[in-house]
Design brief:
Blueprint: E1 2-5, H1 12-21, E2 26-29, H2 32-35, E3 40-43, H3 49-59, H4 61-67, E4 72-75, H5 77-80, E5 83-86, E6 91-92, E7 97-103, E8 113-118, E9 136-141, E10 143-144, E11 151-157, E12 159-167, E13 170-173, H6 181-197
Length: 198
Amino acid sequence: MIAIIKYRAGNTASVANALSRLNVDFFFAETPAVLDKATGVIFPGVGHAYAAMESLKESKMDEWLKKTKKPVLGICVGMQLLFESSTEGDTNGLGVIPGRLQKFESNTEKVPHMGWNTLNSISKHPLTKGINSNNYLYFVHSYFAPISEYSVANCSYAQDFIAIVAKDNFMGVQFHPEKSSDIGALVLQNFVNLVYTE
């Protein structure tokens, strides 16, 4: 069954509602012991990276996440914390994906990047099945992951950045699939399918 990490910085209700619409069984997890029961894990996040990381540390779920071999999907700040660090609050992340998050610096675009946008440079991956460059997804963020070898799909706003990332069993999406209509639902379904076919 899918576990949704429940902590102070998690946008758990909307993710839970999205899974319910897909008829996917799930439960909330607030401790490592509960996470042990999961087949796959969704790691949502909103707000400030430093506060989110501190909340994870309090429950010791940060150590569990660093060591797990189960499929993990990070959403928004949850994706950002998979990386080594972020300039937001000079935060040290989980470090399971190399890279440091930067803040958008733009004289031409509003920050944060808020609204619907498309993907580019889409690689073949279980998460991107059925997704193409004409599809719109919903973004809300001021910090971004620079393009790297772990990019599965990119997006462009002020500059190109990682929209979908993957390394080993860890995956992340910068957009909010739970707020991205049918295409977002497809991304979540792709993750669920991956969890249950591994």
